[in-house]
Amino acid sequence: MDTTPLRDAYRALLDAAATVADSGDPSPVPQAGEWNADQVLGHVALINAATITTASSVAAGANTTYDNRTALDTWTIERVIALAGGNAGLRERIRLQGDALCALGGPALSEAELDTLVPTRLLSNDKLLVDQPMPLRDLITGLAEVELPGHTKQLLALLPNGAQATEPGIR
Hints:
Blueprint: H1 4-21, H2 37-59, E1 66-67, H3 74-84, H4 87-108, H5 111-114, E2 117-124, E3 127-135, H6 136-157
Parallel strand pairs: 1-2
Antiparallel strand pairs: 2-3
């Protein structure tokens, strides 16, 4: 599997996060109902951890599921922010997680492993998006095509006169 789009999506997200962090506003205020920069990064770190866990379980031949609800929980997000040491720690964690997912999605897993169906539940803004088995490869490519670009837009929307998210509330 070509992980170039995934690597590019991580680079864009991390560049946006650094731009927001370096904007001079120590805590850009999001629009009502949106997350601040640290919360977006905490959520992404949790999504990454869940995806790494799922890919590792498939590689180990273990039964697994994929459920993003924990990554939407405010208390859990705040806990991850604290454990990572804030924004800089979250960015480093996400960078390393991205490297791990690019390795897992690329040379570390076989085509058969990437095609393994994983029972999946995905929610966004309290709406059920997916509740069915999905191939592991689709979970990984979904990061590159939807999840990371959506959160990149959220981060950039925090900048004064910055890019506006085309889909507010991507979670």
